[in-house]
Design a protein that fits this description.
Order of helices and strands: HHH
Strand content: under 5%
Number of helices: 3
Number of domains: 1
Largest sheet: none
């Protein structure tokens, strides 16, 4: 009964996943560009080394973790998928009840 809704939701989830990947690539591209500029000599010294280390070891992995938390296990999209599965099961149960009531009326009349 609700398959058109589920198809629309699947489409939106696909779009969200694609956008999340694009955002991750763009953010990491900007950070990598900064790292390359600093590594190329734009900024030198202890502060530059600390910046490169922090960006490489903390920021880039955390951007990946943020995107994964939205789209991966336990995140926004899996939560939506779980809700869809529950709604689908309820829809099937309601359809079965409706069919059973219809069969009952058919047997009476």
């Amino acid at each position: 009964m609700l398959s058109f809704v589920f198809d629309a939701i699947d489409s939106v989830i696909g779009q969200i996943t694609g956008i999340a990947g694009t955002i991750e690539d763009q953010v990491q591209g900007v950070i990598t560009g900064f790292i390359n500029q600093v590594g190329g000599g734009v900024w030198r010294g202890t502060g530059a080394d600390a910046f490169v280390g922090e960006m490489s070891d903390v920021v880039i992995p955390e951007v990946g973790n943020l995107i994964a938390s939205l789209t991966g296990g336990g995140g926004f999209i899996p939560g939506i998928n779980n809700a869809i599965n529950l709604i689908s099961e309820l829809d099937d149960m309601i359809s079965n009840i409706g069919n059973a009531v219809g069969d009952l009326f058919d047997s009476i009349f």
